[in-house]
Amino acid sequence: MDSIRELIRISKIREYAQGEQIIREEEKDPWMYILYHGQVRIVKKNKVVAVLRRCGDLFGEMGALGGTGRTASVFADEDSACLTVDAAKFEEFTGKDKMAFGFLLYRLLAEVLSDRLKQTTERLTRAGDEILRLKGQIRELSPDPG
Fold it and tell me: Are 68 and 28 in contact (CB under 8 A)?
């Protein structure tokens, strides 16, 4: 229970207007985002890679926890609100709070990464099927050398 209070203490609710940029690719900052309501679009090199619309969807965690530049930009597709968490504050936790909060965070991350891995696997499978289909069409169209 204390870990949830601490999460709330280090968090802020931020609202974003439709079209507003939430995260800028390559910038560094310590914020992770949990979508409360609305819809956000994740864009890498001007290509949409995901759209999040479920309450509880997490984004921005890789850059925030890794301390690296953001790997993608995020925009509000409609008026949206997020619970924002300053990942740099995690280091302030001690004892049981640190363990409980770490468990909560890693449980959430495991669920998110599992879902993303499943989606990526499905996309790769579809892409592989499409490649095989196109190779078959090329063989059919190619003149027989024999």
Answer: yes
pTM above 0.85, yes or no: no
The domain in which residue 55 lies consists of 2-141
Residue 146 is assigned to a structural domain of this protein: no
pLDDT digits 0-9 by tens, 92-127: 777 776 777 677 777 777 777 788 788 889 989 999
Supply the DSSP symbol for 120. Answer: H
* Ramachandran sector of residue 84 (left: φ over 0; alpha: ψ -120 to 50; beta: rest): beta
Contacts 24+ apart (CB under 8 A), 98-104: 100/2, 100/3, 101/3, 101/6, 101/7, 104/3, 104/4, 104/7
Give the single-character DSSP code of 69.
P
SS3 108: helix
What is the number of structural domains in the chain? 1
- Asked whether residue 2 carries a pLDDT value surpassing 60, the answer given is no
Q: Is residue 74 part of a domain?
A: yes
The answer to whether residues 57 and 34 touch, using CB atoms and an 8 Å cutoff, is yes
